Amino acid sequence: xxxxxxxxPGSEAWSVTGGxxxxxxDFSSFVEASLPGLLRYxxxxxxxxxxxxxxxxxxLEKIGSRWxxxxxxxxxxxxxxxxxxxNAHVSRWRRTRRENLVADLPDTQPFAPADPFEHEPLWxxxxxxxxxxxxxxxxxxxxxxxEAEIAATLGVTQGTVKSQASKAIASLRxxxxxxxxxxxxxxx
Length: 188
Description:
Elements: H1 20-46, H2 49-64, H3 67-73, H4 77-96, H5 121-128, H6 131-142, H7 147-154, H8 158-176, E1 181-182, E2 185-186
Helix pairs in contact: 1-2, 1-4, 1-6, 2-4, 4-7, 5-8, 6-8, 7-8
């Protein structure tokens, strides 16, 4: 076994030919560096830390097998991962919203939220938004991306980002009964 093959635990299954070990190291470094931000993004998208972690794991698993292609074809792998997460979340939401439970769920102990802000009205209102609007709001105000970066991340136009943000803000304003603010003053 060569030194390159022993660089990572469990890398014995990877062939040294073709550079697969170095690709694994690159992907591993990428995951290590971006995982905290991706977990925050997944949590903000799903509204649940466990579902967010599952979303991140699912997307990284799919991307890991195509890492070389992702690096070569996309200029920004983190944007590609975020877009994949948003798409996977929307797809999962579409699949699960049609599911009907046929039996009552057994009584269980209530789950203690891991986040102290779990029951804050803003977080509840944010979780009630449609997935696309929630993704735009999270990327804009939580991740601090510009409209152009959000459009590139989600694969939509800047106009779509603006309209989704406008609809989301209007919905949040209604749900939270916030006054409309224009140019630093309350609207009368």
